[in-house]
Write a structure and sequence with these properties.
395 residues; alpha/beta; seven-stranded parallel β-sheet; four-stranded mixed β-sheet; 45% helix; binds NADPH dihydro-nicotinamide-adenine-dinucleotide phosphate; binds magnesium ion
Length: 395
């Protein structure tokens, strides 16, 4: 029987689960939801440790449920929300369960690291469209994720600014991509000599010139491992091999990336660096909604520059390309080793230049598997973390 939509009936609001709502991407996603409260609703909010902020977000956005991954904060969070009709859960497994809820219509994966993989898989198996910020998921298991998305007919909407730019550049195209031009800011040490890189401290690396992001990705941007991960992410999202993905350093971060087609035409997406733009598009696609974000000022933007990345000073970029060339579980090994050295660098236990050394050693030592299963990825992650940690103590 056909249902009739009455003229005064409000359109349904898209119910969004935000995994990692207390982070840089998560809080910006909530700004987008607040600005378009007629279109979107935060159905599920989750965090790892920052339970006070999660409780505050829950009071503002009234989700049906919240999850705190670190179970030690469960009681505090539950008590803080005791007067509200909000279900409170704890633990990593709860993240997988909440995304399966029938009401959820889209899952924004804004958690950091390998921990994003299990709930992303759970969401895909439950048929939920993914707004993908957690690039580590695609780095670790892109092939597996693509297979699951095909099987469950689930779309992935990229949130990473470069991948959103590529996505926007192919919107409406029926022809295949000849080449992806993946732009990189080059990070805060773009002009540093090898000798200067020896002196880099966490405080220096945490100051990104153009983007205000979580600590892990900010360090990955400084080493350019982030760009290496984005090459891997682009391969799986757009089906383009590594030798047709060209990284170009563009310090102004105005051209967010570009696509070249068979006739030589290049389409790019430009804008003021603001992650709310790709987040909002992932939520509203195929529509574009109004925003109050800054617009490009074409009269003050005097020069846009482009240069070749230096993979000798920024070895992590070369290691990521190498991992992609080897395939199998090698990107998973690189991701795990990188998570260990990234954290160690932040805590002052590893120098800036030792990071690629330990990742390279781990790539040589860890067990290589050409056709990994999901269980293999879990084991590889553990093994590579252990080896990278040994590499740290040996330094
Ligand atoms: P943040 O560190 O700012 O936030 C991470 C979020 O994930 C927080 O809510 C955090 O909770 C939660 N979290 C961290 N670890 C776990 C865990 N083990 N289990 C459950 N939840 C966890 O990161 P960003 O927002 O910067 O980045 C999120 C993802 O988006 C990353 O994969 C990053 O690469 C990607 N990305 C980010 C961009 C940016 O501009 N920030 C740009 C492009 C991609 P808590 O607050 O409690 O610690
Ligand atoms: Mg990016």
């Amino acid at each position: 029987m056909a249902t009739t939509l009455h003229m005064n009936q409000e359109p349904r609001k898209k119910q969004i689960a935000i995994l990692g709502s207390t982070g840089s991407i998560g809080t910006q996603a909530l700004q987008v939801i607040a600005a378009h409260a007629d279109r979107f609703e935060a159905r599920i909010l989750t965090a790892n440790n920052r339970w006070e902020l999660l409780a505050e977000q829950a009071r503002t956005f009234h989700p049906a449920a919240v999850v705190i991954a670190n179970e030690t904060h469960y009681t505090a969070l539950r008590d803080a929300l005791a007067d509200l009709p909000i279900a409170v859960y704890a633990g990593a497994d709860a993240l997988c369960q909440v995304v399966e809820s029938a009401e959820v219509e889209m899952v924004l994966t804004a958690m950091v690291g390998f921990a994003g993989l299990p709930p992303t898989i759970a969401a895909i198996k439950a048929g939920k469209p993914i707004a993908l910020a957690n690039k580590e998921t695609m780095v670790v298991a892109g092939e597996l994720i693509n297979g699951l998305c095909r099987q469950h007919q689930v779309p992935i909407l990229p949130v990473d600014s470069e991948h959103s730019a590529i996505f926007q550049s192919i919107m409406g195209e029926v022809s295949s991509i000849e080449k992806i031009i993946l732009t990189a800011s080059g990070g805060p040490f773009r002009t540093f000599t090898h000798r200067l890189l020896e002196t880099v401290t966490p405080a220096m690396a945490l100051k990104h010139p153009n983007w205000d992001m979580g600590a892990k990705i900010t360090i990955d941007s400084a080493t350019m491992m982030n760009k290496g991960f984005e090459v891997i992410e682009a391969k799986w999202l757009f089906g383009v091999e590594a030798d047709r993905i060209q990284v170009v350093v563009h310090p102004q971060s105005v051209v967010h990336s570009a696509v070249q087609f068979a006739d030589g035409a290049v389409k790019a997406q430009l804008g003021v660096p603001d992650m709310r733009v790709p987040i909002q598009l992932a939520f509203s696609y195929p529509e574009r909604l109004h925003s109050d974000f800054d617009r490009l000022d074409w009269y003050t933007m005097h020069s846009l520059t482009f240069e070749r990345p230096d993979t000798e000073r920024f070895r992590c970029l070369a290691l990521a390309y190498e991992a992609l060339r080897q395939g199998g579980n090698m990107p998973c090994i690189v991701n795990a080793a990188n998570e260990i050295v990234n954290r160690a660098f932040l805590e002052g236990r590893c120098s800036f230049l030792a990071m690629p050394d330990i990742i390279a050693q781990t790539m040589q030592r860890a067990t290589f598997i050409q056709q990994p299963t999901y269980e293999d990825y879990l084991e590889t992650d553990q093994e590579a973390r252990r080896m990278a940690a040994e590499g740290l103590t040996a330094k």
